[in-house]
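Before the break, one more example. Copy the sequence into your notebook; we will annotate it together after we see the structure.
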Amino acid sequence: MRAAVMYGAGDVRVEDRPDPKIVQPTDAVVRTVAACVCGSDLWPYGSMPATDTGRPMGHEFLGFVEETGADITGLKAGDLVVAPFTYSDNTCDHCAKGLHISCRNGGRYGFDGVDGGQGEAVRVPYADGTLVKLPVAADSALVPSLLALSDVMTTGHHGAVTAGVTRGDAVLVIGDGAVGLCAVIAAKRLGAERIVLAGRHEARTALGREFGATDVVAERGEEGIARIRELTGGVGKVIEAVGTRQALDTALGAVLDGGVISRLGVPQYELGPIGRPEFMRNITLTGGASPARAYIELLLPDVLDGTIAPGRVFDQSFALDQAPGAYRAMADRQVLKALIRP
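Here is what the structure looks like once it is written out:
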C-alpha cells in the first residue's frame, strides 16, 4: 500500500509499505476513505531529526472495515468507521472513567509497529473498543465533519468541557487553528454567550465568527491581553489551543482570578509560570490530550443533523501522493487543515 512517512524535518515521502494484516485477534484492518494532516504533525515536520527508517504519519482517519480478527464482535467487513486519534480497549479502568487517552492497553498510530493514518489502510489494535460505526455512506457530504470527530472537534470539546463552559459564560479561545476553531464550536454548543477568539489570520477568524465567536482579537502579547481585558474585563474560562509559552502567558494575563485555563495545544515549552503569583490568584490549569473516544458518540448526533459542521476547517483536499505538498501548505499557513483522500 501507499503511505506517508516522515524521515526528518521537512522530509515527508509517500512510499510503498507492506499491506496491513491481522496480527492480534482484537485487530481490524481499515481501508482508508479520508485522512488529514494535524497541526501537531507540524511540530516534528519542523524539528524531527533525520532518520533512515522514517515514521509512518497520521492519526486521524475514517474508512471501511476490510478484515477483522477472531475476537472482534462489534464490527464486520464493510462497516464505515471513524478512528479516534489513539487506540484503546474501552474496557480498562481509565477508559471506564472516560480517560481513553490513558488506556492501559492503548497506543498511538505510527508507533510500535502500528500503521499511520495517512495511508491506504491501517491495522487498528483493539478495534472493538476503538472504532465507532457511522450510519452514512462513504460519499456522504458529512465525511469531513465526521473525520473531524477523530481529533480536532473532540479536542475542542475537551477544552470546553474541562474549562467548565456553561450557558451564559464568557470564554476566550486562544488560537485560530483547526482545534481553536472547533473549541469555538464547542463553547457555542455548550451555551457560551460571549466567545473571544484570539487569532490574526483573517480567513480563519472569519470562519470562527461563523462558528460563534462574538469578538476577535488580533493583537498579541501584552497588547493582546490589554485588548481582551478592555473588551471583557477579563474572562473566567480560557481555552489555549496553541501550545506556545506566549499563548499560556496570554491565557494567564486574560483570565480572572478564580478562573480556569484549559490547555489543548501540545506544549512546546518545558517551564511555565506556576509559582506564587498564580497560586495567590486561585487559577485552575486543566485540559491536556483529549480522550477522543469518550466524546465521539456524544457529538455524532449533532454532526449527523447538521447542528455543528466542524468539517469546514478542511479548506483543501489532497490526493495521498500529494501529502508532502499538504504538509508544506499547512506549514506555510496556506491551508488551515489539509484533507487527504487516498
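The chain has a mean pLDDT of 97. The first helix runs from residue 42 to 47. Try to locate both features in your own notes.
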